[in-house]
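Researcher: Please translate sequence to structure tokens.
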Amino acid sequence: MKTQKLLCVGLNPAVDRRIRLPQIELGQVNRASSAVAAAGGKAAHVAFAARALGTEVRWLGFLGGPEGEMCRTGMVERGVTPISIAIHDHTRTNLELIDEAIGTVTEVLEPGPVITAEEAGNFQEEFERQVQECSLVVASGSLPRGLPLSFYATLVKIAKDAGCRMLVDTSGGALGNVIAARPALIKPNRQEAEALLSRKIETLCESVTAADELRGRGAETVIISLGARGAVLVSERALHGKAPERNVLSAVGSGDSFLAGWAVGSLRGLDDAECLRLAIACGTANCLADAPGNISPDEVECLSREIEINALP
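Model: Translation complete:
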């Protein structure tokens, strides 16, 4: 029997190391003012944000080595139930370097492990079991080496056969491949949508046209995130929402928190406009958080009251 549980799929998780430096000097020895390591990767950030909103969350992904064990322990500590597929390779480590002098954030993302055919098969078998119980799946992040570009599309088909809706946030060839499988939602940013459509997207009108074209390729709902300009949603209608201005600590994980807000809103039965409002509030709250996905429900509620959602032609 399905419940209102959210399943977050993380094919390429990571240990996130957030390092703060008084000032980054290229080519010189730099001494950090602080360094914190935590379970990470896009799907983990989604899971943490959704859990912060009170949703029961399971996370399913590949984990290997001591880094993988650190990820698993970190998820348990944040109230997320991890279901891991053991791999021979090691889980990657990502670096987030914060220059405190000028407030810039530089990310260094490792390529990740190589997944074997046996490990991929084990994942699919576990995924089939999980979608029998969960009503919504969020799959986010890049594909690790060894998996075909069609892997997300395969998961969409498995989820659909089980009567489960799937939201996908990925990029490049994996995004282009999954659209034809008709996921419930895709969420490219402007640059990713431009790469898919081989043209520039500069205005809200062009964003709507682009999202509508991607819907025509198969996705049921398309959200194109536009950074400080908000986000455009196209399903049965077109909507635009924009966040209130805030001083940003770090935008890392904001797109993931946005997607968590949309997923939680969907599980609560909210309409598109209110799902978009909650998503934008969560993405903005993440910019104020001390770690990706560590959003404050009170902050989300306050921000929601300041967000305007407008219909677009």
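Researcher: Any highlights?
Model: The chain has ten helices and 14 strands.
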